[in-house]
Structure formats: structure tokens, C-alpha cells
Amino acid sequence: MRIVNRGRSKTLKLLVIGSGAREHALVWKLAQSPKVAEIFAAPGNAGTAQLGRNLDLTASDFAGLAKAARENKIDLVVVGPENPLADGIVDHFQSLGIPIFGPNKKAAQIEASKVFAKELCFKHSLPCARSATFTDYEQARQYVKRQTPPIVVKADGLAAGKGVVVAESTEQALDALASFMAARTLGAAGQRVIIEECLLGKEVSVLAFTDGRTIVPMVPACDYKRAFDDNKGPNTGGMGAYSPPDFYSPELGGMVLRMILQPTVEAIDKEGSPYKGVLYAGLMLTNDGPKVLEFNARFGDPETQVILPRLKTDLVDIMLAVIEGKLDHLKVEWSEDACVGVVIASEGYPGQYEIGLPITGLDTLERDVLVFHAGTKAGPEPGQVLTNGGRVLTVVATGRNLAEARSRVYSNISKIQFEGSHYRTDIAVLK
Ligand code: AMP
Ligand code: GLY
């Protein structure tokens, strides 16, 4: 593989794959590196277009992306979403000698297959919920009938957040099974199903950089999955996030590193593939200690939008150190600030919504309030931005504490408008 020359300033060309607010936040952070000459995003959005060049290529078009990387002499490719990782984009670029940040196909199984992740947990004694796996619909039904609700039903494969049902009753759990296994609403993702005990406690997302040996946890964050205030309404891709949660102590951080992150990276290594990239552990802090709810093989969305503003170290240096297996040489530093991010969504999201609506007020915000674009695109008028998706923007502010950060987000977010825009008003309101 090519060794990237990172000594000199403004020499590197980067390509970020994806089109969400997470990818805009990555482009924004990477662009701050003095080593970066130019950043491309594929396909990107109206926000990434302001910081670099968008390429009209989807995240699944490996051949097109590799060709564009060659033509534009890209030194580092960064993958945002899970699907290309699960489909082996890292293996593909590695075989072409193009440096790429993220786990390979085998390691990305930790997110792509919940059954794989669960077996890894059992085999290597990682703390998680008790569970059973089924491929047979009738057997799964019989098992559910023997459990006491609440019961958690999970589809094995990638399902964009739609593959988990926390059922309050046996009927609900049976309905979930019928939908995944009989009606096949999620296609092949629901061929295998996990039925697991419902864990109680506070939820936290702990992401870590790892080169397969050294693990550097990021600052912890909490996200909000439900569409409406007070955690009502349907699950979404995420309506907001904040960092840090006050209940996450340094002692707990040490425990999570020792009991979960370290053994997970070692376990993946023992399975025959070093884990390189970001390992995301979704945890429930139960009375019996932290337990794994899920693993992701990438940066979280919207967690990334509140984590990266707190990162003081050059993200390019971190990513190159991960690729080169030299993360132990680097000191990764974080600011003490708190950070809050609130998502503005289209009317109807996560169901049907309209696109192409003009967004106003983006140029009226306080200077250091950040707006990360997701579903947006440039309009025909100069400087015009139109909606182009369900989650449209993440508005982010930092402060000396959460209350300050939150009040800055909310005093600015109301200035951004488009027809039917919707956001939660209780992000980082601690109860
Ligand atoms: P996952 O995609 O596995 O993170 O699941 C989505 C959400 O479902 C999580 O963020 C939790 O809120 C919830 N969840 C998943 N597994 C469990 C469990 N075993 N007990 C309680 N809640 C769970
Ligand atoms: N915020 C949850 C996720 O990125 O999967």
C-alpha cells in the first residue's frame, strides 16, 4: 500500500463517502487539517459542496469511486455509512493500493450481522443481553410465547434502524416475528432473528478509534432515536445527540474499555481479521454493569456531529495512524466543552415526506453555531439550498456546559425554516 506523505502542509487529497450530516461533519473536521489540500465527497450534499467538491457517485458504486479516486489522486478515502463497509469497500480499495479508513468486510460483520456480533459476545464473554437465534419461524413463535414481556426482537441484517422491536407484549413480539420472518418486510435481513431479554438502564454510545491493537475511546455521547419529544413516536435515524452525558464517569469509561472495547477488538482479531477504523458500542448501563446492545462498524449519526467538534487532535493524523497501525504514537485530545446537536426533519419523516422545499435563515445564525447538512441540495438561485431528504440538517453548538450549549442551539435553530420543518425541543434536557 502507498505510504502517505504527511509531513508537509496542504498536500493531501481526501475523499469522504456518504451524504449525511455525519459525512458533512467529517468533511468539516478533516478540512481543518493543515495537511489537506482538497476534499471530495461522494455523493455529498449542499454542505459538503461548500467545503470541497461533490462527485456524482453513489456509495455502492465501488468501481466508479475507485476510478474517481485514481483520477483525482486521492491519498485517503473515508467511509461514512455501513452498507459499503458491509459490502467490502475497504477490501476493494486495499486491493487497489488506495489508503482507506474503515474495517474490512469480515470485521464489518460486527454490524452487518447481529447474529455474528452475538456469537462473538458469547464466545468471548462480552457482557450482553441473554438471547436465542432462530431461522425457523414456528420455533421462534414458540420461544416468544414462553418469554415474559417486554421482549426484544431483532432482525439479523442491516435494516437502517428498522430491524429492532422492543415489544411490550407477546402479541407485539409475535407481530414483529411475522413481519420479519413471514412477510419478509426487511428481505434477507429478517431471515434470521434474535430474541433477547430487555435490558433496563441508561443508554450511551461509546465510539473508539482502533488500529487493531491500540484503542482510543472518543468522548461518550447520547442520541435520541424517537421522532417526537418525550421519546414518543416512531424510531428514526436519530433526532439529536449530546456529549458528554453526566452519568458517564472516567471509572465507567475504564470499565467499558477493559470489559468491552479491548476484548471485542481482540476477539475480531482472533476471528482472523484485525479491526481498523471506528468501533461503535451501543451500551445499556444496567445494575449489573455496562452491556452491549449493538455494535456499529463506523461513526454514529448524529453522535459524530457532537463528538467531532470536541476533538482537538488532527483527524487526518488519527486516520492515517489507524491505517498504518501506529495509533499508539498519537495523543488524542478532547475539549472540555459540552456539545448539543438537534436534527431538523421534513414533515412526515420517518414516513413519507416532500423534497425540494427552499430553506431560509441559514445565513442568520450566530457565527460559531454549526449547521451540518444531510438531505439538502443546491437550488437554482445563487446560494439557495433546498430540502432533499427526511433528516435535513443537524444544528450544533458547544458551550461550557450542556445547558449553555443547548440554549445556543435552540436560540438559533428557530431561525432556520422550511415548509413543515420539525425538530425535537427536548434534546439534552436532562431528566
Ligand atoms: P440496536 O439497533 O440494536 O441498537 O437497537 C435499537 C434500540 O433498541 C437501542 O438503541 C435500544 O434503545 C433498543 N434495544 C436494543 N436491544 C435492547 C435490549 N436488549 N434491551 C432494551 N432495549 C434494547
Ligand atoms: N446513532 C445510531 C447509529 O448511528 O447507528
Task: Note down, in words, how this protein is organized.
- With 431 residues, the chain is of the alpha+beta class.
- It folds into 4 domains: 12-102, Rossmann fold (3-Layer(aba) Sandwich); 130-197, ATP-grasp fold, A domain (Dna Ligase, domain 1); 202-329, D-amino Acid Aminotransferase, Chain A, domain 1, CATH 3.30.470; 338-413, Glycinamide Ribonucleotide Synthetase, Chain A, domain 4 (Alpha-Beta Complex).
- Helix content is 29%, strand content 28%.
- It has helices at 21-31, 46-49, 62-71, 82-86, 89-95, 105-112, 114-123, 137-146, 170-182, 250-270, 303-307, 315-324, 402-413; strands at residues 12-18, 36-43, 53-54, 76-79, 100-101, 131-134, 151-155, 164-167, 193-197, 202-210, 215-217, 222-228, 232-243, 277-286, 289-296, 338-345, 358-359, 370-373, 376-378, 385-387, 391-399.
- The strands form 5 sheets. A 5-stranded parallel β-sheet has the order 3-2-1-4-5, sandwiched between helices. Strands 12-13-16-21-18 form a 5-stranded antiparallel β-sheet. Strands 6-9-7-8 form a 4-stranded antiparallel β-sheet, sandwiched between helices.
- Helix 6 (105-112) packs across helix 7 and helix 8 packs antiparallel against helix 9 (170-182).
- The longest helix has 21 residues, at 250-270.
- Adenosine monophosphate (AMP) binds next to strand 8 and strand 15.
Reading off the top of the CATH hierarchy, the class of the largest domain is best stated as Alpha Beta
What CATH calls the topology of the largest domain is D-amino Acid Aminotransferase, Chain A, domain 1
CATH homologous superfamily designation of the largest domain: ATP-grasp fold, B domain
- Under the CATH scheme, the architecture of the largest domain is 2-Layer Sandwich
Span between termini = 50 Å
Strand order across the largest sheet: 3-2-1-4-5
Instruction: Give the ligands present.
Output: adenosine monophosphate, glycine
How many individual helices?
13
* Total strands: 21
Number of domains: 4
